Amino acid sequence: MTITRLLVANRGEIASRVFRTCRRLGIETVAVHSDADACLPYVREADHAVRLPGDAPAESYLRADLLVEAAERAGADAVHPGYGFLSESAEFARAVEAAGLTWIGPAPGSIEAMGSKIEAKAIMKRAGVPVLEAPPDPTEADLPLLVKASAGGGGRGMRVVRVLADLEPEIAAAKAEAASAFGDGTVFVEPYVEHSRHVEVQVVGDGHGGVLVLGERDCSTQRRHQKVVEESPAPLLPDATRTALHDAARRAAAAIGYRGAGTVEFLYDPEGDRFWFLEMNTRLQVEHPVTEAVFGVDLVELQLAVAERGVMPDVSHGSPLASQGHAIEVRLYAEDPAAGYQPQSGTLAAFEISTGSITEAGAGIRVDAGYETGSEVSTFYDAMLAKVIAHAPSREQAVRMLAATLRRARIHGVVTNRDQLVRILGSEEFRAGAVSTDLLADGSLAVAEGPADPAAPRAAAIALAETTRRPGFPVAWRNVTSQPQRTRFEGDVVVEWYGTRTGYRVEGNDVIAVVPTGSTDEWRVTLETDGVRTTYDVAIRGRRGAETVDVDSPLGHTALRRVPRFTDPAEATKPGSLLAPMPGTVVAVHAEPGADVTAGQALVVLEAMKMQHTVSAPTDGVLTQVDVRPGIQVAAGEVLAVVSTGTGSTDEGEA
Q1: Residue 654 has pLDDT above 60, yes or no
Q2: Residues 6+ apart with CB under 8 A from 453
Q3: Residue 634 forms beta bridges with which residues?
């Protein structure tokens, strides 16, 4: 069968990625979208688009009936599930095939076999693939243990247990999160291997036992059990172990007659040079670009070829298929690592990541993004904004190229993990290839030791001063200078500067030039220190006197918020107020007004971007006010509850 029009049953970057291959192959494309996604780039990139009905945007892409109906209405003859939502749903695959459409993925039976991690382990054990198993009645000697969701991944429904008494509560919490994220609250327990590595093998099967192995990826650098950095080939992996991993993955795929692209994931213990089967993802993985880069293949094209012709295409062109160079991918998330990786939402005032040019050998930067400047980042979906991939002849070159690209990116309006990614790439452990799943566990790479560029606030202060200039008058000039002007930013950042007849003087720097670039809200400021000039791009937005200022320089990005000289009393909150750290849905309230609470006690649970977040009492006291209930939506900064340190009077301690 020849595919002529393909619907991608997914959103954002995922859909854009599949559309790119379809355009090259001459296949028409169909996008589906919720109301929240209507203005995202992928909708415009498709040849046709269908709106998914419903008032719950997060659930729109989970309705198999709506997606099949959309495919039929748009005249599609094939459905690609992307790599999320229903991509590993056997029921969805069967519904697509029952409608007479071509399913771009493995057979429903294969999805079903691997969909339950519990059943998958049993199959792998029979196939001779090593697996991890916890005893039925664990004791202290079996710790630490890991609670995992059987039906999903991405760190959701996963808990590490180090105290046996915590096992049952953590199982309950994991079940709740798994049920919310995957519609299945089944969990299981396995040994937790300390200082392990997450290594996965890319396979493509023809459905008849033939399996092509396209190397391995190391995905060990994770936060909250979710991948942040992936690379291929895996560093510091013994050749014999690499070969054994590939052989085990081939046996795993052959055991279920696998068809199409898939990934067999393993847990690797470098100390003992041992590995165990974790799970098989019966779909394309988010990190597939690093494999494409080093092997020079298009995995989406291979998926389409197997679905159309039922045979494995010749991707080697008569020569042995070998990897070339090294590729590293980072996931750019809308989240704040310094605040426990809290998801962020809002409008991307700027979102520009330069790709440069690709060399004849294929080295360069690739960006797979789901957003653009002006896009709204909502709370309904995963927090990933884009993937940035570097491919170079060596790992060292790829690390350097990727870090420089991230530093130069212009990302304004939403807090991201960009700076943490730069710190990871520059850390001694990562540069040495000594990666592990606990690389980020101690939090040392979550927060910067100091500002990316100490002079960035000075450039911001000068640009702000320039916005107040009146024609013919020097800014803030005085006949008799008694003291400098002061511009204050949040975080106790104060810049002292002087306005002169010819320009400005600012602490430690000579101001060489202040030039508007496009509008009065964007400036290019050049500062000189000890004869060395550095240029800063400054973008200003927000209310006069309380502006948000983004400064980009060769050393990276600095976000500043000006402290207003006077505070509106109406904007003040009561002492002891618990504020929502991000927009989300209240899923639980654990105490009633008047209850005595202790510091750290969980009071409210929010769900945002598919994850649950607990808001706890900051101190011992009395819960004097509860403003929310389960099921309601709250905005970032909204008061959830108030804890008084008094003895119960609702007025005590309040102004």
Answers
A1: no
A2: 534, 536, 551, 553, 555, 556, 558
A3: 584
pLDDT in tens, 535-589: 999 999 999 889 999 999 999 999 999 998 766 655 566 778 888 887 788 989 9
pLDDT on residue 182: 75
Q: Is the pLDDT of residue 152 over 80?
A: no
Structure tokens at 477: 């000039």
What element of type H or E holds 320?
none
Q: Higher-confidence residue: 363 or 34?
A: 34
User: Which helix (H) or strand (E) element contains residue 91?
Assistant: helix 90-98
Strand partners, 145: 161, 191
3-class state of residue 178 by DSSP: helix
Cβ within 8 Å of residue 394, ≥6 positions away: 325, 326
d(CA 82, CA 30): 13
Phi-psi region of 179 (alpha: psi -120 to 50; beta: other; left: phi over 0): alpha
Give dist(CA 166, CA 378) in Å, integer.
34
The contacts of residue 655 (CB under 8 Å, 6+ apart) are 572
Q: Are 189 and 171 in contact (CB under 8 A)?
A: yes
- Indicate the pTM of the whole model: 0.84
Kindly provide the residue ranges of all beta strands, DSSP E only, lying in 209-258, ordered along the sequence. Answer: 211-223, 226-232
In terms of Cα–Cα distance, which of 58, 46, 38 is closest to 15?
46
Q: Would residue 633 be called left, alpha or beta, if left means φ above 0 and alpha means ψ between -120 and 50 degrees?
A: beta
Report the C-alpha gap between 430 and 423 in whole angstroms.
Answer: 10
301-304's contacts with Cβ under 8 Å and 24+ in sequence apart are 301/21, 301/24, 301/25, 302/204, 302/260, 302/261, 303/80, 303/104, 303/105, 303/204, 303/260, 303/261, 304/3, 304/21, 304/22, 304/25, 304/27, 304/104
Q: Can you tell me the mean pLDDT for 637-643? A: 89
Tokens coding 570: 């109406």
Determine the distance from the C-alpha atom of residue 335 to the mean position of all C-alpha atoms in its chain, rounded to a whole number. Answer: 8
CA angle 261, 262, 268 (to 5 degrees): 145
Strand-pair category, 5-8 with 78-80: parallel
- The pLDDT tens digits for 239-285 are 999 999 999 999 999 999 999 999 999 999 999 999 999 999 999 99
Intra-chain end-to-end CA distance of the chain, in Å: 74
Q: What angle is formed at CA 420 by the lines to CA 414 and CA 425, rounded to 5 degrees?
A: 135
CA dihedral 220, 226, 231, 232 (to 10 degrees): 80
